[in-house]
Design goal:
Blueprint: E1 5-10, H1 17-25, E2 33-38, H2 43-55, E3 60-64, H3 71-81, E4 86-89, E5 95-96, H4 100-110, E6 116-124, E7 133-135, H5 139-145, H6 152-159, E8 169-171, H7 175-178, H8 189-199, E9 203-214, E10 225-227, H9 230-240, H10 249-272, H11 277-301, H12 303-316
Parallel strand pairs: 1-2, 1-4, 2-3, 6-9
Antiparallel strand pairs: 4-8, 5-9, 6-8, 7-10
Helix pairs in contact: 5-9, 6-8, 10-11, 11-12
């Protein structure tokens, strides 16, 4: 049985904090621990949190940072302080659907080999009104409906992160594999966790809307929602349909460029983050194998274009694997 749960969240959020905390405390399966790391936000935020701690002393643990850590390292600190078996991440301005904990725990129980679960969600505005928008969380369904296989490894390794921290929960046993979280431009804590878990086939996407994700001007990271139109849906589907058949010379060029970029990133991780070497060493070999196979096929099918591309890449390094 999964009896212990933890929750972590961070930064300024006094305007929306009460709705968030009330939704967490009113789950169909109660949470056992709420860990708060406050990254030097305003007094109102700390005052609100202190009131909740007074009302639920057995649940709340609040830590106020002496120095501002920033989002990534504050999440890292908060995660490391959680003590229970399943850790749920939460931003300060979102609202949980009442059975979020229950559904995610059921998912872990039904899939004992996975370590990370992320979910779909509703979009809301500053006044908590539902937004009629598409989201990147809808993408797995779009891809599968189009007849393509949705592949966690390929998507997260060669394209982009589709998992949002506010929807994530993970087993505490994953901590040695994800900590420390790198401080790299454009790499957030959720992207790192998704990447590491996907490389070892431990990631699962639950296509249920279990949070109300708030869209507002002051949020630190957005880029979740898109216009609800046929054009946007097709663009999202085409971008993430990485397993569709590669037919043209242009397709091969693009795919080889993606593999080369992923190889360079993974080589950096291998050299700088020894705790995750087992994932990135294996991944490098897989990427090199894929690059060689796709390059050989491209040269066989498009010999003239490949000849000129080879000399162009000598100067641009767009499609180069450095072993």
């Amino acid at each position: 049985m999964y009896e212990n749960f933890s929750n972590s969240f961070t930064y300024i959020g006094d305007r929306f904090l009460q709705k968030q905390q009330n939704s967490i405390l009113s789950q169909t399966i109660p949470v056992d621990e709420i860990v708060v790391c406050d990254d030097q936000s305003n007094e109102d935020t700390v005052k609100i949190l202190s009131t909740y701690r007074e009302q639920h002393p057995e649940t709340f643990r609040i830590f106020v940072n002496s120095n501002k850590l920033g989002s990534v390292k504050n999440f890292e600190k908060c995660i490391s302080l959680c003590q229970n078996e399943i850790i749920f991440l939460s931003d300060q301005d979102d609202v949980w659907v009442p059975n979020k904990v229950e559904r995610i725990i059921q998912t872990f129980q039904g899939h004992p080999s996975i370590s990370v679960v992320c979910t779909n969600g509703f979009g809301i505005d500053e006044e908590s009104n539902l937004l009629d928008l598409l989201s990147r969380w809808d993408m797995p369904e779009f891809v599968r409906a189009n007849g393509y296989r949705f592949d966690y490894y390929n998507i997260l390794n060669l394209l982009d992160n589709f998992c949002t921290g506010a929807t994530m929960a993970f087993r505490r046993t994953l901590l040695p594999d994800i900590l420390p979280i790198p401080l790299i431009k454009d790499l957030h804590h959720d992207g790192w966790m998704a990447k590491v878990s996907a490389l070892d086939n431990q990631l699962y996407f639950l296509n249920e809307k279990l949070i109300f994700y708030r869209k507002h001007a002051s949020q630190q990271v957005g880029n979740i929602f898109f216009e609800n139109s046929v054009e946007s849906k097709n663009e999202i589907t085409n971008y993430f349909s990485i397993e569709k058949e590669i037919k043209s010379f242009k397709d091969y060029k693009k795919f080889l460029k993606r593999i080369a970029k992923a190889h360079s990133e993974n080589k950096f991780f291998l050299e700088n983050y020894p705790d995750q070497q087992k994932y990135f060493r294996k991944n490098l070999l897989e990427l090199e194998k894929r690059f060689e196979n796709y390059q050989a096929t491209m040269r066989s099918r498009f010999p003239v274009q490949s000849f000129f591309l080879y000399f162009g890449d000598i100067f641009s390094n767009k499609r180069k694997i450095k072993t």
